[in-house]
Amino acid sequence: MRAMVLNEPGQLVAAEAALPVRKSHEAMINVTHGGICGTDLKIYEGGIPTQYPLIMGHEMIGTVVEGSDNDNTCEGSRVIVDPVLACGNCYFCHAGLTNLCPDGTLLGRDQNGGFGEFVAAPSANIYRLPESVSDQEAPLIQVLTTCLHAQRRASISAGEMVVVMGLGVSGLLHLQLAKEFGADPVICVTRSAWKRDLAKNLGADATFESGADALAGIQERSEGRGADLVIECVGQLPVLAEAFELVRFGGRVMPFGIYTDTEGALPFYQFYFKEIDIINARAATGVDYPASIDLVSQGVIQLQPMVTHVKPLSELANALAMLKDNTARRMKIIIDHSS
């Protein structure tokens, strides 16, 4: 099959790769579209360790071409793949915490993923997509599941002030989800003016530039208390430090961004003095997929405004480079395997 193969950090080549070996409980899927995210970039650059050669890609949809032997997986079905694979036998799996399975793996990081023509995945990890969700926006549902999983852990109450820091795809999804869960107001913080405009169009009650502008605006709107919950979607320690400034005493901070730093400075005294709860979230579980698909199909969550580029598989390396260009009006890049 044709695939984009990562042979070492920064060395991505078009190549013919072996077809996946489908196990009896798995279905074979012809991948049609996939999304690129910051995790892919960190794998590409070597920030996240893996074994080579590797076919990256964990945000993927496609068509079932060969069903599982163990169930009635329907060939020809259009599906999204949950890339988080679990053993199914350990304490965490039996407790429904499949995302924390010690023997779990991620398609596109620990084994070949969706930037190839085919992928094999357990039938329990595939979910049918309604016709109302387009091919170009459907890969973003995988990102939505991680945001939904995180906000379920955060237990947002109606009327709470939620601040979202960083307005990439996950930040804009967190904005929409927080509104759906009853947060009021939802305030978005970023240096990017065009992303602030996009956030307003998606329902943000207020937007501020990070720094003194954000602190002053949030203090004014909260009568000096600070935010009940701050969701940090950038994945940089200085931004997480700013989140400690914006949250109220007794509030919650969610470091949603993925941090690859091994050391750094944080205002640890504020962590103690303000009695801040840190709520972490990792990936998603199976229950988050049907709920996320429903939210999109019902029009509660908008995905299309975040799709800014569609590229063929052969231009994957260029698409990854685009993720580092902070001057471009770039949000989610979708890889179209048919082009």
Give an overview in words:
The model has no long low-confidence stretch (mean pLDDT 95). The strands form 4 sheets. Strands 3, 4, 5, 8, 9, 16 and 17 form a 7-stranded mixed sheet that branches. Strands 12-11-10-13-14-15 form a 6-stranded parallel sheet, with helices on both faces. Strands 1-2 form a two-stranded antiparallel sheet. Helix 7 links the parallel strand 13 and strand 14. The chain folds into 2 domains: 2-138 and 303-336, Quinone Oxidoreductase, Chain A, domain 1; 146-278, Rossmann fold, CATH 3.40.50.720. Helix 3 (140-154) packs across helix 4 and helix 3 (140-154) packs across helix 9 (288-297). The radius of gyration is 20 Å and the shape is globular. By secondary structure, the protein is α/β, with parallel strands linked by helices. The protein has helices at residues 38-45, 91-94, 140-154, 169-180, 193-201, 212-221, 237-246, 268-273, 288-297, 316-322; strands at 2-8, 11-16, 26-36, 59-66, 78-81, 84-85, 105-106, 118-122, 126-128, 162-165, 186-189, 206-208, 227-232, 247-255, 277-278, 307-312, 332-336. It is 27% helix and 26% strand.
